[in-house]
Amino acid sequence: MEIIFAAACCSVIVSILLKFLKTKGFDVLQMIAWNYFSASILCFYWFKTDITHISWSHTPWWLILVLAVLLPSIFLCLAKSLQYAGILKTEIAQRLAVILSLLAAYFIFAEQFSQLKLIGVVLGVIAILAIIFGQVTEKTNRSLNLKSALFLFCVWFGYAAIDVLLKYSSSLGLQFAVTLNLTFIGAFILSIAYLAVTQPQWQPKNIFLGLVLGGLNFANIALYVKAHMIFKDTPAIVFAGMNILVVVLGVLSGVVLFKERLKLYTWVGLICGIVAVLCLAKAMM
């Protein structure tokens, strides 16, 4: 569970920095684009990727292409969903993507759910919902039209798809490092191409902070995939554990850093989340 906790910490730190830097006038999309540049370099040196001997026949090019498109696209869909559907609906769609991931663990990866594991998963979903409803307040009553529904679906399905594909990449053995490295490179190229069309003006501060964020984002993804390698037979624990910890740590950071007040729903969610993590940790033993 320690490695999942470390991955969740990196994810929360990235979210906090993006939230803080956006208020300071930094361009989030530009930072996200350049984060893939430093992530690709770190991936190359950390995993000692042997790019010179890439096997064209054995490399999963379909997986690299899909992930390279999904990783930057999910941020764009998230921004559009926040704009058209609002914070509450977007948060629910993002966090309830874990349900699709859990279904994939059962139907695709053939994982068996013990009673303790099932209790942990159910409590985790309850915790996520309780915390979201407790912390998020809609200031405007936005109706669910076709455009907002489309972006909500993209967020819900996109986050689950990334989880499942990263789990699959962890089972590739020696091809894993090549796949992850080429994914980051592809995501960087596609992000730069998109911004070259939509935002021709570049600011050095966005590039620099993007490179810094890339280190944290790489650590988040690398640790997350490493957790799937260690618990290769129990992907549901990694899926659920990661999502629960991200939500719980996000709330705690909001209290400490942004002086947010906790409501009753949030307290219930935190308690359920802690119990859920303990159940999942016990199920690993």
From TrEMBL:
Topology term for the membrane: Multi-pass membrane protein
Stretches that traverse the bilayer: 28-47, 59-86, 92-109, 116-136, 148-166, 173-195, 207-225, 237-258, 264-281
Organism in which the protein naturally occurs: Acinetobacter halotolerans
Record SUPFAM superfamilies: Multidrug resistance efflux transporter EmrE
Domain of life: Bacteria
One cellular-component annotation, GO: membrane
Location in the cell: Membrane
Protein name per UniProt: EamA family transporter
Protein family according to the UniProt entry: Belongs to the EamA transporter family.
PANTHER family cross-referenced by the UniProt entry: EAMA DOMAIN-CONTAINING PROTEIN, INNER MEMBRANE TRANSPORTER
Broad class of the protein's primary localization: membrane
